[in-house]
Amino acid sequence: MSQTGILPSNPDWKQLYQSAMVELDAAQLLLRVAEARTAMLDRAKEIFDRTGDDEFHALCNGLRELRLLEEVATREKPAT
Length: 80
Known about the structure:
The protein is mostly helical. The chain has helices at about 10-20, 25-45, 55-75.
């Protein structure tokens, strides 16, 4: 933690999330979703104790959307 007691914002999860949400290559989609989820969960753990934080709510919403995207991608994934 920083000296002020507030964790600095880590925008890495946002970029990974956005990349997953716009990925069109079915072969890469599940990988991008997994990367984004990991980064988002790591960040959520860092800020968990700061209830009411806008970033925490954005993480929760993003994780829910990634789960839905992953479910759709899994259903539509062609059998190999």
